[in-house]
Amino acid sequence: MNNDNETSPRPVPSLAAIFTAFSKIGLTSFGGGLSGWMMREFVLRRAWITEEEFLSGLALAQSFPGVNVVNLAIWIGFRLRGGPGAAMGALGIVVPPMFVAIGLAALFSQLKESHTLHVVLAGVAAAAVGLSLQTGIRAARRAARQIVPLLVMTLTFIALFLLKLPLLWVVAAMAPLSIGIAWLRLRKAGASA
């Protein structure tokens, strides 16, 4: 699905709308899978960014140190409204859920022996895995459209899952390779335009 519509400009959300959207995601996304929720909210529902922009931001967010979803919130916020948007994205994804997490931690300490609570948490975790898988499949489909990104993706998979090489070493090798390939592709596209 391509949300890039050349005939009508994309909406520019207010800073309050950015904070509210990220707060909603942070407060309703239990057990992980936040990048999947972000894609649904910002690409499919609100159309604030395109799928291609989102997946590029996700790849960038995962290559930086720190929490991936906070990095992604900063990137999306910056893309939408610059530095203030980045701040609202980061604050929205972190602050409201932090207060809820503190309250839930206190409650969980009282209910830690409850079998029902453990079953509910396992169900929430399974749903989060499904959302993450959906985002991963979309990214893989996009990469599989061209031979070089497909080759990089395949080599990364082989290095991590079959050869069981350390993640840091694989990222240290594949990230510069991927960036170099993207840079050459952009340079070539710019020269032909």
UniProtKB/TrEMBL annotation:
Location of this chain's protein in the cell: Cell membrane
Cellular component aspect of the GO annotation: plasma membrane
Keyword set includes Mitochondrion: no
InterPro entries: CHR_Transporter, Chromate_transpt
Keywords of the record: Cell membrane, Membrane, Transmembrane, Transmembrane helix
GO terms of molecular function: chromate transmembrane transporter activity
Protein name according to UniProt: Chromate transporter
